Amino acid sequence: MTALLQALCAVLEYEICDNNDVKMQIITTLQITSRGKRMYADLCERQIQLRELVCLSSFSYFLAYVNYIDKAWQKDTFYTVVCSVIL
Asked: What is the domain count for the chain?
């Protein structure tokens, strides 16, 4: 049973299936047992942490880029351009 639950979690984690109906069936199946619920909750937590890490990495990369560009351009001009793009 555990191997089956692990396989279902792997299908979700590695996005093997792109059909939303099938994904919902897998989630429903996982939530039938307490172990499956725990495994799905762990999977969700890992995905949240991964998304946060990607966001932080992207932001760090952006800050490094800002520092690089800041040296090349005048500070006021650069921030005006960045603010106009973001807004």
From this structure: 1
